[in-house]
Amino acid sequence: MVAHPRDPDHRIDVRSSSREVRAFVDSEIIAKTHRALCLFETRHPTRYYIPPDDVRREFLIPSRKTSVCPYKGTASYWSLRVGDRVIEDAVWAYLDPLPERADIKGYFCFYPEKLSRLDVEGEPATQAAPGQGIER
After folding, report:
1. What phi, psi does 58 have (nearest 5°)?
2. Average pLDDT of span 108-119
3. Domains in the chain: ranges and CATH
4. CA-CA distance, 20 to 9, in Å (whole number)?
5. Pick from 21, 104, 124, 128: most CB atoms within 10 A?
6. What is the distance in angstroms between the CA of the first residue and the CA of the last residue of the chain?
7. How far apart are CA 64 and CA 78, in angstroms?
């Protein structure tokens, strides 16, 4: 068992998207893709996982933080450094996910609330739907 016991009513769906997803810190584009994976998880907002080739990794600083999800595995974190500004633990990825979530392996995901902006097709990404929480 990884983390807390699994909830039989919990569901995760991952879908490929060709919609443009962009992550900004101030006016700097940190990530831009037309190949995001949209992760839909029970009681959580939609998360946009971005392929590593579409993330400007020169802005990423490895963090010591990790977290464990019983449905995805252990997440590794990165902080963002843009100029003199450092945003702690703003990005995560599952480098060695559980077998059932191999589709998101190595893709980066950003906390929208830690960025200046995360948009999908030029519109702000939804941070949470009514009754939904933020991924831990």
Report:
1. -65, -15
2. 96
3. 12-118 (2.170.150.40)
4. 31
5. 21
6. 18
7. 8
